[in-house]
Structures
1.
Amino acid sequence: MGLGLIAASLPAAAQAETRQLGTHLHGHGHLDVAAENDALSMELRVAGADIVGFEHLPASAAEQAAIEAALATLSDSSSLFTFPAAAACRQESAEASLVVLSDPAEDEPHGHSHSHAHAEDKVDGGHAEFHSRYLFICDNPAALDRIALSYFEAFTNAQELTVQLVADGASFGHVVTRAAPVLDLPRRF
């Protein structure tokens, strides 16, 4: 099926438990989409504030419950994406995780950083992002001309997604917003 190309086309950030903190804007997430044959792979990366309203590690049972609810929602692609019925796309796999981002300026003074969170870590230190990956198989990929993003309905702090689409060796960039939550796909199948 050639899923190796799809996997190689998307960043592997969701595999890491801790990453370097880069610039990110609240309300603004990233969605990578790769299409090959009948397979559609998607990876979503969004700041914690956009999903649960905060970016720190949970400081209370209520914050922990919010994270667990968000992970459940992110694992259910049907609550985030809608494909044309004629494309007959079905979810083959989905995974969601919370990733703690480290700030290089706050690395430990003894010259190394850890790839895991410590119980003694300050709750307000660092940032957290939600990462999720999806794999869909579409029985009629020629009918896949758009993806409606109900993601914006599920997460009220989310305002826009920068989308990178890779298909047939070409790459396309788009921005999808809360006001216009549909990703029109080029006729690549």
2.
Amino acid sequence: MIVKPLAEGLDAVRAAAKKGLPPVHLWHPPFCGDIDMRIARDGTWFHEGSPIGRMPLVKLFSSILRLEEGKYFLVTPVEKVGIVVDDAPMLAIDFEVEGTGTAQVLRFFTKTEDEVVANAENPIRVARDAATGEPAPYVHVRAGLEALIDRKSFYRLVDLGVHHAVAGQDWFGLWSGGSFFPIIPSLELA
């Protein structure tokens, strides 16, 4: 069943958003069905097949996104609707580096203007396509939501990579926020 979201729910979200991210984790409204909304792998939001061109609206929607049991929902105080996410719900389009070595800190910026420092609470992970071996890097942003790290940023990250032993095996990876994030076993780079 496809439903239309209620305007009153979005009004409550706008009011909450003025104070920072809305407290989506505190809202437990009834599930109202799925809406025809999709987030493409490149971070573009679509509604009924058309891209949403108003960035403030996309930012508002991204602020009320919640992941539950592998499914994505937009949640307001009065309703919860399902949406489709092709890969990750966010896209990291840039990052800054502070410090070096084990004191290095990587701060990521998403297309929806979220900022996150990679650390133990917000790890970087790299999934590899089983057929091609192509890496897909992600950084945790908040509440189980990840951002796919775009290609240009990933290439820049690789330039910062170092080798480090993890559980008796040498890995090529990245330091940030006091944590080491493995990308690929060092032996596979030879």
